[in-house]
Amino acid sequence: MALPYLEAVLCFMILMYIFETYLDIRQYRALRLPTLPKPLVGVISGEKFERSRAYSLDKSKFHFIHEAVTILMDTTILYYRVLPWFWKKSGELATNVGLNAENEIIHTLAFLAGVMIWSQITDLPFSLYSTFVIEAKHGFNKQTIWLFIRDMIKGILLSILLGPPIVAAIIIIVQNGGPYLAIYLWGFMFALSLLMMTIYPIVIAPLFNKFTPLPEGVLREKIEKLAASLNFPLKKLFVVDGSTRSSHSNAYMYGFFKNKRIVLYDTLIQQCSNEDEIVSVIAHELGHWKLNHTVYSFVAVQLLMFLQFGGYTLVRNSKDLFESFGFEDQPVIIGLIIFQHTIIPVQHLLSFCLNLVSRAFEFQADAFAKNLGYAPQLRAALVKLQEENLSAMNTDPWYSAYHYSHPPLVERLSALEDPDSKKEN
């Protein structure tokens, strides 16, 4: 008799849904508060606060519905053994079209193709409503329905192009890994992550956005001067046309070793008319580089990935585990799916811990920019970006502690003003 692994997974999924819904309710109550937090009074305009409040409440209501539908679908699929039924039907379909379903790679690709189709169908209504109702209502959506469809098709084609060789490699490694399976799996995923980090900004990202060099001028000169002063090996400085899809703004950097690149969203340049405010945002990002936050984060992710693969090797041959989920055989991809469900408690705990570390890194990067003399400009930029992005002004402390990877604006402004708090390490 199979042990009740499935029942335990379902129980925890429901408990986590109840807990996270409780946090969502706390956040919803905070969002409904009619006044700004005291530290933001006189800093954030009343008009921006009301717009932010309306936007956040609309997103919160949508989130309640989305999460309810998601937990209902996920628990139904597991409880009624839809996965083993779908695995069987995908094998039959592969056979009917003349493929060899006895080949696990072919069977797995047929299964994943069906899963992708199902995901596209179930996610599409939510994506459309979020983009063309909520984001459009509050002035953020800039893309047409045709651009939305084109991006979706490109994403599907990329999955079809990149997915099969990756899936095939994983299956072959698991089938032949032996006692060193965890090491082989981790080595493959490590190499794959490096490859994707290399080709994504060069090959994949340009399929969706246009990247152009930042024009010569005061802003470019100041960014290059800042990078040089920190010995940051800046090779290219781009502007991305984020405004073709959204009014939200951002900036980021990427690249290995001596080939670093910085990307500014055109919306960031539009929203921060003062060049020094934009430079302060770059100073913050360079703080992450100078303080090795990117390296620490990458190492942490790789360590967690290795530990997960180690755990997978311990349970992948558990017949009871597969039987509990309704499977008679033990396919590699199904083993990975089941394992991800069984470690949900650990994943939530690790996510919370990573958020704690991320928030600490954000404070340190702010302190780094402050020590470079950009405290007033960074403070002004943070306020402006908070206003322009209509980010939540009132946040519940429990909700933000559990969900936020970045500290709330109130905390960041307080740290910038306090000479003895949140110093960089």
Automatic annotation (TrEMBL):
Domain CAAX prenyl protease 1 N-terminal: 27-210
Protein localization: Endoplasmic reticulum membrane
GO cellular component term, pick one: endoplasmic reticulum membrane
Residues engaged in binding Zn(2+): H284, H288, E362
One Pfam family of this chain: Peptidase_M48_N
Cofactor details (free text): Binds 1 zinc ion per subunit.
Domain Peptidase M48: 214-418
Membrane topology: Multi-pass membrane protein
CDD domains per UniProt: M48A_Zmpste24p_like (cd07343)
Named cofactor requirement(s): Zn(2+)
UniProt KW keywords: Endoplasmic reticulum, Hydrolase, Membrane, Metal-binding, Metalloprotease, Protease, Transmembrane, Transmembrane helix, Zinc
EC top class, as a word: hydrolase
EC assignment: 3.4.24.84
GO biological process, alphabetically ordered: CAAX-box protein processing
Domain of life: Eukaryota
Annotated active site: E285, D366 (proton donor)
A GO term, aspect molecular function: metalloendopeptidase activity
Catalysed reactions, semicolon-separated: Hydrolyzes the peptide bond -P2-(S-farnesyl or geranylgeranyl)C-P1'-P2'-P3'-COOH where P1' and P2' are amino acids with aliphatic side chains and P3' is any C-terminal residue
Annotated transmembrane regions: 6-23, 155-175, 181-203, 294-312, 332-357
InterPro entries cross-referenced by the UniProt entry: CAXX_Prtase_1 (IPR027057), Peptidase_M48 (IPR001915), Peptidase_M48_N (IPR032456)
Family, similarity comment: Belongs to the peptidase M48A family.
PANTHER family: CAAX PRENYL PROTEASE 1
Function recorded in the entry: Proteolytically removes the C-terminal three residues of farnesylated proteins.
Protein name in UniProt: CAAX prenyl protease
Gene source species: Oryza meyeriana var. granulata
Taxonomic lineage: Eukaryota, Viridiplantae, Streptophyta, Embryophyta, Tracheophyta
